[in-house]
Amino acid sequence: MSLTFAAATADAIPIHVIDAEHLDTIPKEATDWAKLHGFKGAPGTTLIIPDKTGAIAMVLVGNGSATVRKRGRFHFAQAARALPLGTYQIASGLTGQALEEAALGWLLASYTFDRYRSESPDIAHLVAPDGIDAKRIEIIAAGETLTRDLINTPASDMGPAELADATRQLAREHGAEVNEIVGDDLITSNFPMIHTVGRASSRAPRLLDLRWGDSGPTLTLVGKGVCFDTGGLNIKPGASMGLMKKDMGGAATTLGLAHMIMALDLQLRLRVLIPAVENSIDGNAFRPQDILTSRKGLTVEINNTDAEGRLVLADALTLADEDTPDLVISMATLTGAARVAVGPDLAPFFTDDDAHAAAISASAAKVADPVWRLPFHDPYEEMIEPGIAHLDNAPKGGMAGCITAALFLRRFVEAPYIHFDIYGWQPAPAPARPKGGVGMGARAILDALPELLKL
User: Fold this and answer.
1) Locate the Cytosol aminopeptidase domain: which residues (predicted)?
2) 81, 136, 236, 373: which one is catalytic?
3) Domain of 32, in residue numbers
């Protein structure tokens, strides 16, 4: 699906965006009609103003009050599906970053996942507003579409091999290179934990390694690609397994972000590492209290086979660090503890660098991609040290679960490092975000890259 702006046309229907506190900005010719229909500028509400023939002369879209706008995002995007088919343009009421958010939100509201059945017909189109970078917004929407499509595809059609196919397709689109290590070759190539987690599946585990760019600072993205997670021998209950097609949401988000970076031709050297596995159950599945030796040489006691994401990420992060990149960012649907801490709408992230944290937080607020910094809390290090091995993959008690998982990952990286523990799923429809797979944190990272890498 291509989410793009409509070509400019003289017949485009004007939209006037009205703040609830400034109803006096309603065009004079629409004032009486607005009063008659009780239009108060509530967020996302639409009112069609007809001309003398009954055709649409203009549209009013409510922007809510300042207080209400703080309690949500992409309010304007609700108009995309509320209005009749046609071509529209924003005539007044929004400027600057609010205008960019509105334009992006309209495109994202156009998204449907229609791989398995035809969805509703096309929706209203928007002309790119004057003063925005339309190409950049379309590229961001395309990256988000890729992420959503990958997450929404069930594991029957999105296993490790299919995730590899999607990575190669993205590489072909942008002239990147992909190296792939599959099955038992992971052992000979010294990726023991990726192999161990994925070996019980009938679908071979693999490590995907995409490289792009030949100049500028080096950025390595590492995405968790667990295409389905049964929990292994510590099998999940059915209710917890129901959404595990999204456990490759970290990989999907890094690929969406990679598309944005490459399509925008940012002056950096990009590497994307994806350990792609399925955590299944068979006679050769790894067991609780097994001790694994990682690529880095650190030993890991397995106290829960359902804490497998950090194992595959650890080997990939070790490989990333061997190149001494300027920055490593991992993204993973890693812990339920993160959801308990901040819910489904916020992407918690971890970094030891205050300047990096400030840059990401500022960008997140700017581009309506909310994040929240959580700490690499050093006193909790002892919680991941079981005594019998260097590390414990699932400390008992569950206290600070997302922090201990982040501390576990940090043990495998010496380079500047940022970790995102995302959810990757929109549990209920919201403006510009239908129920289903969703990108989290990618737009904030993209906006922050000039500061993070001094581009």
Assistant:
1) 304-311
2) 236
3) 13-110
Q: Tell me: the pLDDT tens digits for 28-52?
A: 999 999 999 999 999 999 999 999 9
Strand partners, 13: 88
236 counts as catalytic: yes
State how far the Cα of 229 lies from the Cα of 63, in Å rounded to an integer. 41
411: Cβ–Cβ under 8 A, 6 or more apart, which residues?
Answer: 296, 298, 314, 384, 390, 391
Catalytic residue among 206, 246, 310, 443: 310
R_g (Cα) of the chain, nearest Å = 23
Is 57 contained in some domain?
yes
- Are 308 and 439 members of one domain? yes
From 95, 110, 125, give the residue that closes a domain: 110
Q: Are 92 and 16 in contact (CB under 8 A)?
A: yes
For 256-368, strand residue ranges (E) read 269-279, 291-293, 299-301, 327-332, 347-351
Cα dihedral 105, 426, 332, 439 in deg (nearest 10):
-10
